[in-house]
Design goal:
There is one protein chain. The protein is α/β, with parallel strands linked by helices. The chain folds into two domains: 1-34 and 80-121 and 168-254, TPP-binding domain (Rossmann fold, 3-Layer(aba) Sandwich); 35-78 and 125-161, SIR2/SIRT2 'Small Domain', CATH 3.30.1600.10. It is 35% helix and 17% strand. The protein contains eleven helices and nine strands. It has helices spanning 8-15, 27-30, 49-52, 55-60, 62-76, 83-91, 108-112, 170-181, 201-207, 221-225, 234-249, and strands at residues 19-24, 97-102, 117-119, 122-129, 135-136, 157-161, 185-189, 211-216, 228-231. α9 links the parallel β7 and β8. The longest helix is centred in the C-terminal third of the chain and has 16 residues, at 234-249. It is elongated and about 65 Å long. It binds ligand BV8 and zinc ion (ZN). Zinc ion binds next to loops.
């Protein structure tokens, strides 16, 4: 595993940080086997986002949208958090406050053990009635039997995710903006940075004085505005970064003063 070149500035800012915000997108889960949205193998390669991730699409063709989410839920039920998710859990032992602000709906950060996770775009494991809002447990998904109906009002059941044109959950958004405004360092990891307002989180952090590093195999819009771009997959870069931080924290025996001299 090739160690990545991290700048001294990033390492020093992380080593002295009280609060760090990690802004993640679909690339964070790519190493777990969850397809991204816009990559060549992306789940949107066959459809356009507007044809699936909108209330209009759901009302026009509920079965198609429900099956798409059932397909993604089935993929997510078979995957595990990867070394990148686990590195962010380990980071909690080195930094007083680590806030994960994720665009992902796959629940992998929480399953890895991260304790502060703000899900800006919802969570595919939760569903609710599009008419009366009652929560609905999907259990074993049977997409083939058509879109489930609400036991209270007969309304269509939908995934608890934020579709295009829908507002982000207010509490999650407010908490994420507060965390970004108070961060010493912001890492954006595995996101194309094209969806708003989520993609403004690293900008809010940097404007408030945070050091912003972008982690991605390919530079994108977020890399342009960042203090540092770290090229590589999250499942390699993040464990490398946490290892370097642990080394900085562990006084080397070579430099410890000799006893009694
Ligand atoms: C809003 C949940 C206020 C569902 C998603 C017209 C009308 C209304 C709104 C708009 C409009 N025009 C524009 C907007 C705003 C719109 C928007 O931003 N559109 C974009 C497309 C231009 N935003 C909204 O609508 C938001 N709401 O604005 O409300 C409002 C309300 C009413 C009226 C007006 C305004 C809501 C947006 C939320 C949409 N929901 N997801 C679901 O998952 O099905 S968005 C979806 O794309 C994901 O959730 C994700 O958040 C988002 C971005 O994708 P990424 O995570 O970045 O993934 P992507 O595939 O793009 O990139 C992967 C990256 O990983 C790549 O960079 C790749 O290089 C990298 N990578 C690959 N492998 C690895 C890796 N990185 C690291 N390691 C690896 N191994
Ligand atoms: Zn209902």
């Amino acid at each position: 595993m090739s160690p990545h070149a991290f700048s001294r500035r990033l390492l020093d800012r992380l080593a002295t940080a009280h609060s760090v915000v990690i802004f993640t997108g679909a690339g964070m889960s790519a190493d777990s086997g969850v397809p991204t949205f816009r990559g060549a193998e992306g789940i949107w390669s066959r459809f356009k986002p507007e044809e699936l991730a909108t209330m209009h699409a759901f009302l026009r063709n509920p079965q198609l949208v429900w099956e798409w989410y059932a397909h993604r839920r089935a993929i997510i039920s078979t995957v595990q958090p990867n070394a990148g998710h686990r590195a962010l859990v380990a980071l909690e032992r080195l930094v007083a406050r680590v806030s994960i602000v994720t665009q992902n709906i796959d629940n992998l950060h929480r399953r890895a053990g991260s304790t502060t996770v703000y899900e800006l775009h919802g969570n595919i494991e939760r569903n609710y009635c599009a008419k009366c809002g009652s929560p609905h447990d999907v259990g074993v998904d049977t997409a083939s039997e058509g879109v489930p109906r609400c036991g209270h009002c007969g309304g269509l059941i939908r995934p608890d995710v934020v579709w295009f044109g829908e507002m982000l959950p207010e509490d999650e958004w407010d908490a994420a903006v507060r965390a970004a405004g108070g961060a010493d360092v912001c890492l954006s990891v595995g996101t194309s940075g094209v969806v708003y307002p989520a993609a403004s989180i690293p900008v809010i952090a940097r404007r408030a004085g945070a050091f912003h590093a972008d982690v991605n195999p390919e530079p994108g819009p977020l890399a342009d505005g960042a203090d540092e771009f770290i090229r590589g997959p999250a499942a390699e870069v993040l464990p490398d970064l946490v290892r370097r931080l642990e080394e900085l924290r562990t006084p080397s025996i070579l430099t410890a003063p000799e006893e009694g001299h």
